[in-house]
Amino acid sequence: MPTPLSFPIDDLPVMWLRDNCPCADCRDPRSGQKLFQISSLPAGLRVEAATGIPDGTPTGTPTGAATDEAAGEPGAAASVEVLWAPDGHHSTYPLAWLEANRPDGASHGDRRTEDGKELWVAGDLAGRLPQTDWDAYLDEPGTRARMLEAVLRLGFMLLRRVPRAEGQVLAVAETFGHVRETNYGKLFDVRVEPDPNNLAFTSARITPHTDNPYRDPVPTIQLLHCLANDAQGGETGLVDGFAAASLLRTQDPAAFEILTRTPVPFVFRDAGAELRADRPLIGTDCLGRVREVRFNNRSISTLRLPAPELEAFYTAYRTFAELLLRPELQLDLRLRPGDCLVFDNTRLLHARTAFAQDGARHLQGCYADLDGLASTLAVLRRADTLEPLAELFAGAGAAEYLGESVTMAQHMLQAGMRAEAAGAPPHLVAAALLHDVGHLEGAVTGQDLMAGTDNRHSHTGADLLGRWFGSEVTEPVRLHVAAKRYLCAVDPTYGATLSEASRYTLRVQGGEMTPAQAAAFAALPGAANAVAVRRWDEEAKDADAATPPFEHFLPLLTALLRG
Amino acid sequence: MPTPLSFPIDDLPVMWLRDNCPCADCRDPRSGQKLFQISSLPAGLRVEAATGIPDGTPTGTPTGAATDEAAGEPGAAASVEVLWAPDGHHSTYPLAWLEANRPDGASHGDRRTEDGKELWVAGDLAGRLPQTDWDAYLDEPGTRARMLEAVLRLGFMLLRRVPRAEGQVLAVAETFGHVRETNYGKLFDVRVEPDPNNLAFTSARITPHTDNPYRDPVPTIQLLHCLANDAQGGETGLVDGFAAASLLRTQDPAAFEILTRTPVPFVFRDAGAELRADRPLIGTDCLGRVREVRFNNRSISTLRLPAPELEAFYTAYRTFAELLLRPELQLDLRLRPGDCLVFDNTRLLHARTAFAQDGARHLQGCYADLDGLASTLAVLRRADTLEPLAELFAGAGAAEYLGESVTMAQHMLQAGMRAEAAGAPPHLVAAALLHDVGHLEGAVTGQDLMAGTDNRHSHTGADLLGRWFGSEVTEPVRLHVAAKRYLCAVDPTYGATLSEASRYTLRVQGGEMTPAQAAAFAALPGAANAVAVRRWDEEAKDADAATPPFEHFLPLLTALLRG
């Protein structure tokens, strides 16, 4: 009874579908990278046949019989197998993947454009500054994730009570990415200098601007860490350049258009550097969405255009400059010693008021990039993703594993540890660690199990794990009960390794395989992995063994998560 | 007799003209940065009056009389003084600047787009690979400049005989810029690895691609340094992606349009990173010029678009992929141990053939950025710019400085050294060093001078220096003869410090100033600087003093060069 697909497979663009084939010939199982060229797909590519494959059938294996009986019952369609013409290639697409990626009008938003941002004026952030203490940022992954998310969404975060040590700003950057060295060095000091090469190093007022517009690629993140601020004045201001650009588009569409279409020469020169970039003040992506603001009155060099275009540009430039100075747009902050401001230099403009030179004001700054920050956030979130599994181990897993002298969690942690100690590849360590999650997920107790209730735990577990992992993890789990029946049939010494409880459940699981079943099982591509997991399973019922906590396996598990 | 301006000043866009005012109130003389906001210019800005100013009159000073007589003769108009309404601001624009920057249709080309490149197919580079030996690259600034220029123009350079040391690739990058650290580290090893997170670290063939398309900003330069290459195969190929994009635009404009308008999700995932960028395969600037190619079949993730758009995208993508594989586009190289390839990762695609694992193949790579490379090249070229001055010191400067016991070059080098030893700011060290170049440039010999021929050397020198330097250098030079006449008038001890020759030339220079002339001179803004230069001038006629070579002053001089 396969569930009908909600759209005919024949309506899918063939090259798109084939380009997304997940098989091991098309994608490197280790790196996930594609192994073929789009140009090497055969001419006249088409779907020859598409077949729904029910739940419980390992990918690429003949249906049912060779695995345990329970899997023989056809379930709902879980995936679609496509036979390709003219080359005879097979692809199996999980139905969940097809549903999640079905071609429609919803493109994935590019988080770097205005579409992925929460635009703001100062009043919008009253009472909800994205700020936290350094210790909380370091110690609490959830807090850290919330802060990094704020940099992507609002354009900044403010870390308080960061140690006031020279060079500390580099350590802040390294919590989320790589420092981008520039002509100003790995870090730069913002304080009054005797022979400044930049107005930043004087006590002058600086109006809202982005940094280093003369660089291309421009540094996409800036950090400013306050070491001292006893001066009168020297307040910091932030303006959302995307909000300002959006306002300009509404109020003066012609000016917006001019500023997106006019490359502006930004120039910086000193003894050691001569930088120039020709970029518009408002950069849009290929769909016209605002993606970058460069605004720095100090370093705009001489534009060369026909006079009427120069007139129009300057009128638009001035309109935007006046808009950026509107007080309601600017969020005012006073950086206190220990504060570290981290902001999106492609979006937020920063400013400072003039200050009296009688008090010390000293910031240290550095640059970094948004791509690294977004990556760090995504990796942090993988741990959140696995929270439900961690909870199963802590909750249901702590319960009796009836008939055994260990809890279910201890049993699985031991199995993972055994696999790890044996030098198994990560996906088999994960499979060993998670092989019995099917027991934890259902409301079936160990007693139910002993009483002969078949909860099909290997399939329940494999299906559950499919939320996070690919078939390299799920299929050994799916087959680990069949592997027991197989081993009983082919390995005379194996039966002796089974615990009493395990020997008992063998019966409800179908008993040892017939020679024909065993031969069919052995022929499965995943048989060896399933047997390996099964052997670690048997070894993992030692009441005296020390077991690592679930968290020990998190890095390994997060690395295996599906994209 | 001012030369008429070749265009009426009133036709110039007023905000553009005012935004380029070079005065010290509008631009920081040290950093060259603008000191005002475009939004702070008064409403109704207009040119009230424009006056041609003849050659020889220091900016902002009353015409003629107070300086030496020769300058009193009106010359051709050298600059235009503008009086602004309604705020009464004064701006002085050198005529040469106005001519060079006159508003017209010729915009400065953006060297990062196809407009600034020499596009190529493999055959175009036969016999003219941009390559040199490491030693020549290091030792010869001209060779280094030619190589860096090749990276900007052709997209790559090939350095031969680079020491085969681990980490050497970082030293190569640091000759022109800053290393961009990524998830692969500061440097990465390209060799076969047991558990690769990227196909680069296998022996598989890799078709033409750009690196790290999932990064944004993408690293704009890649370096690959060959430490060993004994394997069968493993040849390197380079394809000019801008040339390929240009070909696509000609042959299939619709496909070109689709590839510039479709953001493509590029994704990379491993245990420590999860990177994603949504960028078109062919990126254009805001004027539609090709500016960036991203092409990497391995890391294109799943596009979500309506089915007809997916069909169209895949057809265009395949067309471009096939084009990129045309053999005539690909330059084939075999990297030998010691070779270091440096290439533009926003433009050139690189490839390698498969190789047999029986021979060692080991490259080390790192990333850097084009902006830093272009800056390094521009600074290198400043030295070229000063070559004519260096030649004056070596040529005419080596000649007698008649009546003195030193050559002209020794005299000027000593003056520069004296200024430097006195802790003078760079522009006065330069003025002291260069104060007598007027003697060298003209065909006037020391004997001519002694014979009373006035070659107006202070003005000749100041005008000559105006090719390279601003008024902070040229005006002390222009006034250094007047300063002698002034000092004779006001400092009774000064006359005794003059050499015999100098006392003699005083007569042909107009003799000591009258009290009225001296008062007018002292009121000039540049008088103090001119007097300082004059005193170093008198101190610099010591036959026994060791003098540094002209090259000693090059960094100081290049830092003072006008943009």
Entry summary:
Two copies of one chain form a homodimer. Chain A is α+β, with helices and mostly antiparallel strands.
How would you sum up this structure, described in words?
2 copies of one chain form a homodimer. Chain A is α+β, with helices and mostly antiparallel strands and 563 residues long. Chain A has 3 domains: 9-101, NE0471 N-terminal domain-like; 130-377, Double-stranded beta-helix, CATH 3.60.130; 385-560, Hypothetical protein af1432, CATH 1.10.3210. Chain A has 21 helices and 17 strands. Chain A has a 6-stranded mixed sheet with strand order 4-5-15-8-17-6. In chain A, strands 7-16-9-14 form a 4-stranded antiparallel sheet. In chain A, strand 12 (282-284) and strand 13 form a beta hairpin. The longest helix of chain A is centred in the middle third of the chain and has 18 residues, at 307-324. Chain A is elongated. At the A-B interface, helix 1, strand 10, strand 11, helix 8 and helix 9 of A face helix 1, strand 10, strand 11, helix 8 and helix 9 of B.
